[in-house]
């Protein structure tokens, strides 16, 4: 035998030399859940190790993460029902606790990159990402609301906006509003290929943001579809997105690779709540080694072509690297 691939696997040093994919703490954006008040902290039942924090505790968490080398955060607010309405009005109230928190995080940690979520669901009494009328999600009327929300987030100091709503034309609409108001440097990471997925379940528990009626299939993509992701990618690119995101990650590695091969924009992948929960739950049962399963999953997302990974494992990963 002239060729023996095992020679390149014979020791740790050689294996590391030929390693094709390497994860770094710099690859990550860490999603954080924010609640109103102070000294408030509650664990998300379906996401062991992940907490909803009030701003004071979130600032501590961010400080710890910065020391570990995690520099980017995607902050999601959990609003009580009393603050929700049909039009998600609270989302662009300049005094709302979410926007206050963004201002405070940027004031305390100017080096941190803060990403925000642009979608109506945490503020909507219907629990949908868009405006609901007679059981239908209205696209263009939703854009008006998203535009106000995006502008309020940019004014609060967000570095990257993440439109996660899947309305048509939202990236272009938001880009135009940002530019007209002097926010030319605020980036857009578009949820380009966001699928109607069962893997968002624990996130909706965390924010109490499940749709009150129906599902999200008229705006989020059908898991059966692959080429359709190219249509979304083409539109988001023309409309001015700075990053294209695929979500979820693990069941859509093929879509990550597809966008990577067809676009020159950086590709992000969202390793979602359900993907986190599965590994944690199996680990708790002793059915697999959760740390190895985590590392292997994260590696697969990067290998598929993602240069940015949004993951609830970000901090745990950084702790492993540090030790
Ligand atoms: C809301 C939004 C969702 C997630 C991020 N932004 C949920 C949804 O679309 O229902 C899911 C994140 C996760 O599951 O970790 N627009």
Taken together, the total number of domains comes to 1
Structural class: alpha/beta
**What separation lies between the terminal Cα atoms?**
41 Å
Q: What is the CATH architecture term? A: Alpha-Beta Barrel
Strand count, sense and barrel status of the largest sheet are: 8 strands, parallel, barrel
Helix share of residues?
A: 25-40%
Q: Low-confidence segments, ≥5 residues, pLDDT <50?
A: none
Biggest β-sheet: strands ordered side by side in the sheet: 1-4-5-8-9-10-11-12
Q: What's the rounded overall pLDDT mean?
A: 97
How many distinct beta strands? 12
Shape verdict: globular
* Proportion of residues in β-strands: 15-25%
Order of helices and strands: HEEEHEHEEEHEHEHHEHEHHEH
CATH T-level fold name: TIM Barrel
Number of helices: 11
What is the CATH class? Answer: Alpha Beta
Brief descriptors of the model:
8-stranded parallel beta barrel; alpha/beta; Delta-aminolevulinic acid dehydratase; heme biosynthesis; TIM Barrel; 12 strands; binds ligand PBG; EC 4.2.1.24; 11 helices; 323 residues; 18% strand; two-stranded antiparallel ribbon; ALAD_AS
């Amino acid at each position: 035998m002239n060729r023996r691939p095992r020679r390149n696997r014979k020791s740790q040093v050689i294996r590391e030399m030929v390693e094709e994919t390497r994860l770094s703490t710099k690859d990550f954006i860490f999603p954080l859940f924010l609640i109103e008040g102070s000294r408030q902290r509650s664990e998300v039942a379906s996401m062991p190790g992940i907490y909803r924090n009030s701003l004071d505790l979130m600032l501590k968490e961010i400080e710890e993460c910065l020391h570990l080398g995690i520099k980017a955060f995607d902050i999601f607010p959990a609003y009580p029902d009393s603050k929700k309405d049909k039009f998600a009005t609270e989302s662009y109230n300049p005094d709302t606790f979410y926007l206050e928190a963004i201002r405070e995080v940027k004031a305390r940690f100017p080096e941190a990159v803060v990403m925000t979520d642009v979608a109506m669901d945490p503020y909507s009494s219907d629990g949908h990402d868009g405006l609901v009328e007679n059981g239908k999600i209205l696209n263009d009327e939703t854009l008006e609301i998203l535009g106000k929300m995006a502008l309020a987030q940019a004014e609060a100091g967000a570095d990257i906006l993440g439109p996660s709503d899947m309305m048509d034309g939202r990236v272009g609409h938001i880009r135009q509003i940002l530019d007209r108001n002097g926010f030319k440097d605020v980036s857009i990471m578009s949820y380009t290929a966001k699928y109607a997925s069962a893997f968002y379940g624990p996130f909706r528990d965390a924010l109490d943001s499940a749709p009150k009626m129906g599902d999200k299939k008229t705006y989020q993509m059908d898991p059966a579809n692959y080429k359709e992701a190219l249509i979304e990618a083409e539109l988001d690119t023309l409309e001015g997105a700075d990053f294209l995101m695929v979500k979820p990650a693990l069941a859509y590695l093929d879509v990550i690779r597809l966008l990577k091969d067809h676009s020159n924009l950086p590709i992000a992948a969202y390793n979602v709540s359900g993907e986190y929960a599965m590994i944690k739950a199996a680990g708790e049962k002793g059915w697999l080694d959760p740390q190895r399963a985590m590392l292997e999953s994260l590696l697969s997302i990067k290998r598929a072509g993602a240069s940015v990974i949004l993951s609830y494992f970000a901090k745990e990963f950084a702790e492993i690297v540090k030790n």
